[in-house]
TrEMBL record:
UniProt similarity note: Belongs to the class-II pyridoxal-phosphate-dependent aminotransferase family. Histidinol-phosphate aminotransferase subfamily.
Protein name, as recorded: Histidinol-phosphate aminotransferase
Pathway annotation: Amino-acid biosynthesis; L-histidine biosynthesis; L-histidine from 5-phospho-alpha-D-ribose 1-diphosphate: step 7/9
Aminotransferase class I/classII large domain boundaries: 28-350
Database matches in InterPro entries: Aminotransferase_I/II_large, HisP_aminotrans, HistidinolP_aminotransfase, PyrdxlP-dep_Trfase, PyrdxlP-dep_Trfase_major, PyrdxlP-dep_Trfase_small
Catalytic EC class: transferase
Subunit structure, interactors included: Homodimer.
Signal peptide start and end residues: none
GO terms of molecular function: histidinol-phosphate transaminase activity; pyridoxal phosphate binding
SUPFAM superfamilies membership: PLP-dependent transferases
Catalytic reaction list: L-histidinol phosphate + 2-oxoglutarate = 3-(imidazol-4-yl)-2-oxopropyl phosphate + L-glutamate
EC number: 2.6.1.9
GO biological process: L-histidine biosynthetic process
Length: 356
């Protein structure tokens, strides 16, 4: 029954199908928090090169990628686990630590994959409403029981873009039982402008803290599906026992390795994202929309009217955004920061819809 109750992850149609349906061409897609600059050219070259060996199985241990990450992050190699996107690490954590009836806490709303995996494992989702668009850690602490196994905190948070304050997080950790793992999902960590606790700060000091990172966002490799977790080596050992032997394919390993070395691409990505974010914020404010402060590559804005209708209306004008109606924000839209010309098209479409 817990499987029958699951709702498939909102798949969305292929871009070309949407364009056909709405009679548009050259649509601007600002819906999935992807990198508007595309992948690093170095990653593309590495993937091409890897293609020559597609008849071979990938390196099941992710030797080179793990070594490079360990060196970069200054962490123990044995504490790194690679995944088919960070999504797979969420799945692994739940499969390893959550037995039927066990509890997992997360915010409501938060990244949807947490609750989905918990439900698939017949675990119990303990959903804690946000407070002021941020994780409500005191409320979450009150919901921890002796059945709690995991706490998922997306930091920065999807969809609001808010970040945790260090004193709040430390107070939360101080009261948390030794047996609960706290997963800091840092999918958007590179974009943070400000101070926030990072999993790496706790590694080697607190075995309960697990960090998740991805190549899908700032590194622009969402299509390759590669992410990783950093954690206590003993915790990593459990995930390694369950992990599929070839979960990260050869192209993904090669592309991720090259992307890690392309610091110039990452820097350009951050510059374009931050300046685009500021421009969108200004443009949206001029349209009278309330905008949340965001530490990611997307922002949430209140349209002051039905978000589903705004989504449809801007789509007809060739701009694909995300309605937050299903996340408990019926009048809010989530916009991924694009290239300058994409941001302008988005603002122009919204101006027509909101003031027309
Ligand atoms: N965590 C959060 C908070 C996300 O927003 C996303 C992507 N939408 C992910 C994890 C998953 O990323 P990946 O592509 O690495 O599976």
């Amino acid at each position: 029954a817990h499987i029958a109750d699951l709702v498939p992850y909102p798949p969305g149609k292929p871009l070309e199908e949407l364009e056909r349906e709405y009679g548009i061409t050259g649509a601007v897609k600002l819906a999935s928090n992807e990198n508007p600059l595309g992948p690093s050219p170095k990653a593309v070259a590495a993937v091409r090169e890897a293609a020559a060996n597609l008849h071979r199985y990938p390196d099941g241990s992710g030797y080179y990628l793990k070594h490079r990450l360990a060196e970069r992050l200054g962490v123990d190699l044995a504490g790194i686990v690679l995944g088919n996107g960070s999504n797979e690490l969420i799945d692994l954590l739940v499969r390893v630590f959550v037995a039927p009836g066990d509890e997992v806490a997360s915010s409501d709303p938060a990244f949807l994959v947490y609750r989905k995996m918990v439900q698939a494992a017949a675990g119990r989702n303990v959903l804690v409403p946000l407070r002021g668009h941020r994780h409500d850690l005191p409320a979450m602490a009150r919901r921890v029981t002796d059945r709690t196994r995991l706490v998922f905190l997306d930091n920065p948070h999807n969809p609001t873009g808010s970040i945790l304050a260090r004193p709040d997080f430390e107070a939360f950790l101080a009261d948390l039982p030794e047996t609960v793992l706290v997963v800091l999902d840092e999918a958007y960590a590179e974009f943070v402008r400000g101070e926030t606790p990072r999993a790496l700060d706790y590694l080697g000091r607190d075995r309960r803290v697990v960090g998740l990172r991805t190549f899908s966002k700032a590194h622009g490799l969402a299509g390759l599906r590669v992410g990783y977790g950093v954690m206590d080596p003993e915790v990593a050992g459990y995930l390694e026992r369950v992990r599929q032997p070839f979960n990260v394919n050869a192209a993904a390993q090669a592309g991720a390795l090259a992307a890690l070395d392309d610091e110039a691409h990452l820097r350009r990505t951050l510059e374009v994202t931050w300046s685009g974010m500021d421009r969108l914020r200004e443009g949206l404010s001029a349209l009278g929309c309330r905008v949340l402060e965001s530490h990611t590559n997307f922002l949430m804005a209140d349209m002051g009217r039905d978000a589903g209708e705004v989504y449809e209306a801007v789509l007809r004008r060739g701009v694909i955004l995300r309605s937050m109606a299903a996340y408990g924000y019926p009048t809010w839209i989530r916009i991924t920061v694009g290239r300058p010309e994409e941001n302008e098209r988005c603002l122009a479409a919204l101006a027509e819809v909101l003031t027309g």
